[in-house]
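Recap from last week: sequence in, structure out.
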Amino acid sequence: MRLLAIDTSGPVCGTAVMEEEKVLAEMTCQNHYTHSASLMPMAERSLEMAGMRLADLDALAVVTGPGSFTGVRIGVATAKGLAHGSGLPCIPVDALEALAESTGMRAEPLLICPLQDARAGQVYGACFYQGERRTENRAVKLEEFLKAAGEMWDGICLFTGDGAAVHEARIREIMGEKARFPESPFNYLRPSAAGRIAARSGESVPYTELKETYLRPPNAEKNKKLLEAMRHG
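Predicted structure tokens:
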């Protein structure tokens, strides 16, 4: 399977061209531009470096969340647009699973805890052990997540993702010697990791069925419900 993997769910925007689990080309960037400005040039350049065109692919892989509401929408909308024009199926990839895969420590005896910063002291998090999911994705207070991880696992916990970076001091304070953090470039979501997951699963959907994964409603939706409630007394 040949595919183009897309990730815009976090602070790093990335694309990768894969053949099965082999990386043919990969690009990532973190800058002051929005992901919408960076994504298409990166996708085009990745295909060019891999010596491919969109027509040579078998599928598109896209990280559908959880993550930045705006970022996730950009990635999903771009994948839909590419799929509409090319007829390619889409393979949705979970952001937290891809973060765990990005550490390169899938086979190690560690509890891998990918975290995304959800603001207001909350994180999007999950736990994985040797490639197997141990918890569902959750939007919770950091302390609640750490308590659950500590009760689940007595050994080393590897924390990764932008949520781990933001809350590193607090994580070390609570988890002590049990807390570990991967070195760059293994501490952010790599599009090639999303591509490997997609290649292994092969579970594609028509682009019309591709949906963002949110663990809580976007602010615009919450504000709309609040205004409706106010109007009705």
